[in-house]
């Protein structure tokens, strides 16, 4: 596993380890559905996870789910340039993989990247039953991170 991703998983593991298993399972399927382009299913899974997480002590997960849900919904309707209405806040920074102090070329894309990586981490940590399917998608997550790192190095 990539050191950058391993360090991120280690950093968020304590907070995400209390995630309800059924929520983590829905998050895993939301992530996998989005990655596979099954956007209508990603929307449904995000909605189900949001319902389970109502009142959960980690509101950043709800934000990440809304970001992915809204992007998946837009993509399912072939709206490729739809703006993301839910944005991470300063309170969410400990859970982000992207340093908000770094300049980014496309802030919306990087919020989506942060959301997807957070959902991947939450599912990997909280849903052992989905671990193999998620690990098979590690390359996708590493590609997201590589895009981010290339932008920083420009």
Describe this structure in words.
By secondary structure, the chain is mainly alpha-helical. It has one domain (3-152). Helix content is 66%, strand content 0%. It is built from seven helices and no strands. It has helices at 3-16, 21-35, 39-52, 59-76, 107-126, 131-135, 138-152. Helix 1 (3-16) packs across helix 5 and helix 3 packs antiparallel against helix 4. The mean pLDDT is 85.
Helix-strand layout with pairing:
Elements: H1 3-16, H2 21-35, H3 39-52, H4 59-76, H5 107-126, H6 131-135, H7 138-152
**Into how many domains do the coordinates divide?**
1
Average residue-wise pLDDT: 85
Number of strands: 0
What is the overall number of helices? 7
Unreliable sequence segments? none
Brief overview:
By secondary structure, the protein is an all-alpha fold.
Question: Any key phrases for this structure?
Answer:
0% strand, 154 residues, mainly alpha, globular
């Amino acid at each position: 596993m990539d050191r950058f991703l391993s360090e991120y998983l280690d950093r968020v593991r304590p907070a995400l380890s209390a995630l309800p298993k059924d929520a983590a399972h829905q998050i895993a399927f939301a992530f996998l559905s989005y990655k596979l382009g099954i956007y209508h299913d990603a929307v449904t899974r995000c909605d189900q996870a949001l319902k389970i997480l109502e009142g959960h002590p980690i509101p950043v997960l709800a934000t990440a789910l809304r970001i992915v849900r809204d992007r998946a919904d837009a993509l399912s309707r072939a709206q490729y340039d739809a703006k993301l209405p839910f944005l991470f806040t300063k309170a969410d920074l400990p859970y982000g993989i992207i340093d908000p102090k770094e300049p980014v070329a496309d802030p919306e894309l990087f919020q989506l990247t942060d959301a997807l990586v957070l959902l991947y981490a939450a599912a990997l940590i909280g849903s052992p039953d989905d671990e193999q399917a998620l690990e098979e998608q590690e390359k996708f997550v590493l590609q997201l991170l590589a895009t981010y790192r290339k932008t920083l190095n420009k």
